[in-house]
Specification:
Layout lengths: L2 E5 L5 H11 L3 E6 L13 E5 L5 H11 L3 E4 L5 H10 L5 E5 L24 H4 L7 H17 L4 E6 L1 E3 L7 H11 L2 E5 L8 E3 H14 L5 E4 L7 H11 L5 E5 L1 H6 L20 H4 L8 H14 L11 H13 L1
Parallel strand pairs: 1-2, 1-4, 2-3, 4-5, 5-6, 6-10, 7-9, 8-11
Helix pairs in contact: 1-7, 3-5
Amino acid sequence: MTHALVIGGTRFIGRHTVEEFLAHDYDVTIFNRGNHDNPFADDERVDHVQGDRTDDMDLQTASLAAKPDVVVDCVAYKPAEVERAVEVFSDVDAYVYISSGDAYGREEIPKREGETPMRPCTPDQAEDDSGETYGNRKAEGDRVVFEAAESGVNAMSVRPCIVYGPHDYTERMDYWLNRVENYDRIVVPGDGQNVWHRAYVEDVASALRVVAEEGEAGEVYNVGDRRLVTLEEMLDLAADAMDTDVDVVHAGERELAVGGLDTSKFVLYRDYPHVLDTNKLASLGWESTSLETAMARTVEEHRESERDGAEYDPGREAEERVLGVLDTL
């Protein structure tokens, strides 16, 4: 394998995926609409084919232009898009589809490939664009991959959990980093022991390459940090990376209600733990970055960016009311 085509390739997971393949001596072509700044515009090692992945002709053009050995599909959000891709790239050495941990349809700890049931997907859900059907559509994309593999296509899936790290345009982690950097006291819902499995973005990129090289057709591989941390431990890691201290203040439902808040107002909080078993991926030789290193790199890029996660901010005044009540207890 010497040439990788990354569908997407300029924003977050795709950007790190390009860097991962370049670091392992691949030639790389990115295929996208060109709607976002291309961080590889001046890199002679990276070719760019502009087009719409939902257009069959554009997808075929990208295939003919790149002649890839490996295809990593970062932006397939509907099953029909995966169906077209496995047809166009049916003869590549590896087609790797980025699915999601949200494809799992039952709450259990941990969620395992091939054991934990997947979400169903109705025809209407398959064509929907809302966040409510994201997991359903990703699960159906997995099923397309499985069927393609049965027909001889070397297609595989990678299922990340919540992804964080440099250049994360979702700003979910940025909200908490902004809190750690600017406030001595941080309100955390519950007892701080919430667990929502996260995956460092460089590890997701390396997983995509390892699966392309070592994975088996028709298989799906979970990816996430090998050591999980609670929400409170995540904030402690961030504080250490920023060389500061924070006081994490726990707030239950009654205390939050004083500020007009509830647990749903806090990003990266989940009542029931979400944990993926990553042993299958590790068996291919994949390793994850230490949490300390991952957070240090995340913090460094966060400080260089203008992202603050403001869209997730429940309101500091509301939090101050909660803190005031807790101080009287």
